[in-house]
Every structure is written in structure tokens, then in C-alpha cells.
Write a structure and sequence with these properties.
Elements (H helix, E strand, L loop, with lengths): L2 H26 L8 H4 L3 E4 L6 E6 L6 H20 L3 E6 L15 E13 L5 H25 L9 H8 L8 E5 L19 H13 L9 E5 L11 H15 L3 E3 L1
Parallel strand pairs: 2-3, 2-5, 5-6, 6-7
Antiparallel strand pairs: 1-4, 3-4
Helix pairs in contact: 3-4, 6-7
């Protein structure tokens, strides 16, 4: 066998090894799931590891009409982009409300298939112009995705902030560093957050918070909490300030570091 032929075989073998290696690396690369294309192409996805900081976002929309979905998505996306900047694994959960007299499953909380907390999304690149464009693409992609997810699922008649407060403060792994809650903080569900015909005044707020605290299902968390959407829905008209005051009272119940947007 000539020296030239031996060299050719060696080169061919090396190329095959590189192709196989790249193929395997691509095959085993973690997938970010069903995320919108505009978002996928703007970010780098890395699987979470032990010690990864996380953000939990809980959304209880008033309805699934396009106007409500767009408003909620715009507010929530601002928080999501902060989470991406902080390199947090982001998990989004939707509360569709409860059907009157329906099975428990009719109002089950629903995880977002894209933003399920399994990946850390980062925006890489040293080129400032390209990075700015990627940030904008990621923001627009997320906003469209959140709006579409809200519109896609019917919101049940009965709603309350209680369930997302319970989920936000429940022990979970990993423990979120940041919590974001969207709700109008008005309840028509038969639970401790329902004013039950009482006057919308500070005494009723104190009674509601005391009742909900007494259930033992709302716990104190060490996370930084931001509450969005309080008093911001069609059914809040005339009760905007009362809903915000109720949200502020619950804010103090679940965390020392809680802010009402």
C-alpha cells in the first residue's frame, strides 16, 4: 500500500469521525420544545443544572379574548425578558379558572410547553446590532406565544387569585428566585378570596386575607415577587383600587420582597 493511499484513508477516517461526532452532538443536544421560531432563532438554549436560578410565572387571565390576551402577554413578556437577562430557567403556568359544578380537571392549572423550566435561554453574541435584533425578536416571539396560549384555551366562569397564590408559595424544586403573578384579584369562586357580598372596604380585605391565611395553603416565600394585573380587567371597573389594595395585602402575606406593578 502506497504512502499516498495510506494518507487518503487516514484523512477519510478522520472526516468520518468528525461527521459522526457532530451528528451525535446534534442528536443529543437538548431541545427547547415547541417554542416559536422567532424566539428559537434568537436565543441559545441550555438544559438546566443543579443550582440554576429560576423564575415562576403564574397567569390567571380574566378571559381568552384577543384584547385580554395581548394585554397580559405584553406585561408578562417584560418580566420574562428580565428572567432571560438574569439567566434564569423560566416556567410559565396558566390558571384557566373553574367550571361551576364541573370536574376538578376542568380547571386544572396548565404548564406552558415551551417555557417549562427545563432550559435557560440566553442571548449571545458580541455584535451590539445583532444582539439588539435578537433581543427584539425574542421579545416579540415570546409575546406572540403567550398571547396565543391564552387565546387557545377557554377561561372558565369561576375565577380567583387564590390558586396562583397557593401555587406560588407552595414548596417546589427548584425553589424560584423570582415569582411573577398576573391576576385581577377579584374572585367569584366559592373560596376564601370571595367578598361574598360584603362591602368592598379595608375591613373586608383584612377579613379575606385572614381567612385565606387560616387555610394554611398560602405559605411565606423567600422569592422576589411581582404582582401584575390587579384591578385591570373589565370586571374590575369601579373596584380598581380595592382590587389593588387586596393584591397589596396578599403581597405582604407571601413575601417580604413583594412589589405591586
Amino acid at each position: 500500500m502506497t504512502s499516498r493511499r495510506v494518507t487518503a484513508i487516514a484523512v477519510t477516517s478522520a472526516l468520518v469521525a468528525v461527521v459522526v461526532f457532530v451528528g451525535l452532538a446534534t442528536w443529543f443536544r437538548p431541545s427547547p420544545g415547541p417554542c416559536p421560531a422567532a424566539f428559537r432563532t434568537a436565543v441559545t438554549a441550555r438544559a438546566t443544572t443543579e443550582g440554576t436560578q429560576s423564575m415562576l410565572v403564574l397567569i390567571a387571565p380574566f378571559s381568552n379574548d384577543a384584547l385580554e390576551a395581548s394585554k397580559v402577554a405584553a406585561g408578562v413578556t417584560t418580566e420574562l425578558m428580565r428572567g432571560i437577562e438574569k439567566r434564569e430557567a423560566i416556567r410559565v403556568v396558566y390558571d384557566p379558572g373553574q367550571a361551576p359544578g364541573g370536574p376538578a380537571a376542568s380547571g386544572a392549572l396548565r404548564d406552558d410547553a415551551c417555557l417549562a423550566g427545563s432550559f435557560v435561554y440566553t442571548i449571545e453574541g458580541a455584535n451590539p446590532t445583532r444582539r439588539q435584533q435578537d433581543v427584539e425578536n425574542a421579545r416579540l416571539g415570546l409575546q406572540a406565544h403567550i398571547a396565543a396560549e391564552i387565546e387557545r384555551h377557554r377561561v372558565q366562569y369561576l375565577g380567583s387569585p387564590l390558586r396562583i397564590l397557593q401555587r406560588a408559595s407552595a414548596p417546589q424544586v427548584p425553589t424560584p428566585s423570582d415569582l411573577v403573578l398576573w391576576a385581577d384579584f377579584l374572585s367569584n369562586a366559592p373560596d376564601c378570596a370571595d367578598p361574598d357580598g360584603h362591602q368592598a372596604d379595608p375591613a373586608t380585605i383584612r377579613a379575606i386575607v385572614a381567612r385565606c391565611a387560616a387555610t394554611g395553603t398560602i405559605h411565606r416565600t423567600h422569592a422576589t415577587v411581582r404582582i401584575l394585573g390587579a384591578g385591570d380587567s373589565p370586571r374590575s371597573v369601579g373596584f380598581e383600587q380595592w382590587a389593588r389594595d387586596l393584591a397589596r395585602a396578599f403581597c405582604g402575606l407571601i413575601s417580604d420582597s413583594c412589589q405591586l406593578a
